[in-house]
């Protein structure tokens, strides 16, 4: 089945984790994929994997927090593939700290990647898609829905992504652009991001067990659990969906 056949996608943070799984899955389902990330070696490996499977892909160097990078990245995608139909604003960083322990510099760094990056990516994608339509998918989190005392800056960034997505969705719908904008809210997924958080704790097994226990299904998610949701939002199967939240969290926020 080729659920996004003929479409062109850009996926940010596509060198690792959820972004990597998403780039591979979109390519498997027929999309041409721009793999956009700071990490070039890992990103080129994703491109090679797509090409080895018979797909088309391109590595695009991108720091999502820089507007000039976005201008260059979209121009590169349009020059190579001629159009843009799907933008997955996935790049993000985790940061642990309470309201008391988070410095203003740390706060601003998290917002610049997690929130400014999504704003700039959405703005650039709307400009590239407004003549023909498309789907924009923004990675929020369970942490954009409920609070965690140890994730002050991350909570704020992901809550911002959730409501910014609705604003952009309404603007596009009311402007007649045929661009849909939705947010995705994963629970804890076993990616390099969460592996990094685990590695920082003295008792890693106990930390992982504590994370697992937060999910009523009793385990963490895998990158593909989220990629399949993103594929649905990217495809025309979700054509009546905009300004919505796709929660994929093993029951974390159902409690
Ligand atoms: P990850 O750390 O495993 O991978 C993130 C990728 O983003 C890396 O390839 C990294 O190089 C890239 N990146 C980081 N900063 C960048 C920048 N400024 N410009 C371009 N690329 C940059 O992360 P992941 O777990 O795959 O998370 C992906 C997204 O999903 C993030 O937005 C994260 O907040 C969100 N999320 C993750 C989880 C989880 O449990 N893993 C849960 C909820 C939401």
Q: Can you offer a commentary on this structure?
A:
The protein is an alpha/beta fold. The protein has a single domain, classed as Rossmann fold. Helix content is 47%, strand content 15%. It contains eight helices and seven strands, in the order E-H-E-H-E-H-E-H-E-H-E-H-H-H-E. The chain has helices at 17-28, 40-52, 67-81, 104-129, 152-174, 192-199, 204-213, 223-234; strands spanning 8-12, 32-37, 57-61, 86-89, 134-139, 179-186, 245-248. Strands 3-2-1-4-5-6-7 form a seven-stranded parallel sheet, with helices on both faces. Helix 5 links the parallel strand 5 and strand 6. The relative contact order is 0.14. Nicotinamide-adenine-dinucleotide is lined by residues 12-13, 15-19, 37-39, 62-65, 90-93, 113, 139, 141, 186, 188-189, 191-194.
Query: Widest sheet: strand order?
Result: 3-2-1-4-5-6-7
Helix-strand sequence:
EHEHEHEHEHEHHHE
What radius of gyration results from the CA coordinates?
17 Å
- SS element count, helices: 8
Q: What is the CATH superfamily?
A: NAD(P)-binding Rossmann-like Domain
Distance between the termini: 36 Å
Question: Looking at the structure, what is the overall shape?
Answer: globular
Residue stretches low in confidence (pLDDT < 50, at least 5 long) are none
Main β sheet profile: 7 strands, parallel
Report the mean per-residue pLDDT as an integer: 98
Number of domains: 1
**Top-tier CATH class:** Alpha Beta
Tell me how many strands there are.
Answer: 7
The helix content is 40-55%
